Amino acid sequence: MVEVHLWSGLRSLTGGQQVVGVEAKTTGELLQALVAAHPQLQAPIDAGVSIAVDGRVIATGLTEPIPEGSEIYLMQRLRGG
């Protein structure tokens, strides 16, 4: 089980939870597990998210491993222009 910290805009979609626990060993599994537990997260995830694992931001790639005990943050993908 890993704990995922959510940005404030997502908390209303998870019943106010700031941290959500899911079973996942990769970034792809993490996103799938979040949607399975909280289907309302599908649209924001589809719009684009980044995952920070132990301070390293992963903007793409669904096969990145998530070591047990990692600190994980789900963040809005930053867009520039």
What order do the helices and strands come in, and which of them pair?
Blueprint: E1 2-6, E2 19-22, H1 27-37, H2 42-47, E3 49-53, E4 56-58, E5 72-76
Parallel strand pairs: 1-5
Antiparallel strand pairs: 1-2, 3-4, 3-5
Task: Walk me through what this model shows.
The protein has 81 residues and is of the alpha+beta class. Helix content is 21%, strand content 27%. It contains two helices and five strands. Strands 2-1-5-3-4 form a five-stranded mixed beta sheet. The longest helix is centred in the middle third of the chain and has 11 residues. The termini are far apart.
- Our measurement of the CA-to-CA distance between the termini, rounded to an integer number of angstroms, reads 37 Å
User: How many strands in all?
Assistant: 5
Give the strand order of the largest sheet, numbering strands 1, 2, ... along the chain. Answer: 2-1-5-3-4
Q: How would a textbook summarize the main sheet?
A: 5 strands, mixed
The Rg value, from CA coordinates, equals 12 Å
